[in-house]
Amino acid sequence: MQQTTNLINQQPKIILHRIFLFVSETDLISSAQRVCHLWHHTVKDDQLWKELLHRRRRLYNLLRIEALEDVFNDDDGMVSEDDFSVPIYPIPDDSPENILMNTDEHGPSEIKAASINKLIVKLTSVQDYDLNFTKQFLLTYTSFITPCRLFAKLVERYAVPIPEELPTNITASEYIRRNIFPVQSRVVLVLKLWLQSAFHETNERAVLQKQVNFVDNILANENSILAKQTKKILQRRILANQPPSPPISHSDIYNISTNNSSVEDMFRSFKDKEIAEQITLKDFSLYSAVKAHELISRAQNRRGVQPNLMTAIEWFNRLSKWAVDMILSHKTIKLRVHSFVRLVSIAEHLRDLNNFASTMAILAGLNSGAIVRLKHTHNELPSRTKLQLEALFELTSSKASYKSLRLALRNMTPPCVP
Prior knowledge:
two-stranded antiparallel ribbon
């Protein structure tokens, strides 16, 4: 009779034990242990957590293999195969072989160079987490590693290795809480920041499905709260990339054509300030569409990934050509002088509007060979116009790496189009 009673009393705990093996560990800690005394004692059972650790160990071994198997055929990895194949764990101590720092007596030290593993560890560090470093990394990582390989390394970092034998002074649940949860939370935070940043390349959008699988199959079973938050961001990102947002159309940005008589009518009918304002409105739509990664790709001379930046450059060139055409379209010196004076006035209004881009575009047209050769036109310009033009050229001079322009940008009051 006593044996039967004991069996009945033990049966619910055994059943709970088996059920809890399939419950997310954060739910066990935050919710299940507060239901009742029986659940609380079952959740605190070290044997349960040892089985959870064993399950994690097997899962992480498979996870590392699956994360890496799809990326070794990536020919554009940039990071060498030897560097990429080096496992993150065990994490080596800092040394000149894996990280170099720029030491500054008056400020924090910065990373000068590092292996990809050290960068990932720094990116997901629990003790020394740096949000600015994370943002800079996500902005520039495409210069040295592909999105697929970055995701594989993040998954590898997430799969914190679990020793076969735990230290005697720590329980299995405490080991997970102290050594595994914090690192994994940092990895998920980086994934969320990555998703919230602009996914701008086709191969980066291809990583979305890998991230969906990771959240659904791994994260949801270990941390349901983080999984739900990340899944919402993923869904928004997937919707934002179906289809990808097209770059601003040229026809939507400008309609300046020397063959269009309406442009001549506009030049005659509207005041200089009104023309400058309309140019600035179009300029700002261009400027706001340019993404930071396009500037970096341009500096790296990577073609095909700067659609909005290339449109802005083409608009600059067309505006310069328009300034030239507005002068050369006239055959008499008087009309050319009149157009010249108005263009200088428009450039001044653009400067007053903090539209430095179009100011330089018009000045580039006025300083082109076709206009500089118009000696008679220049001789007939009013003294006031000559002084205005000289001041504008001084502002946009390339001397001392555009010192005057940089100073004006530093002292101006936003908004502006640099």
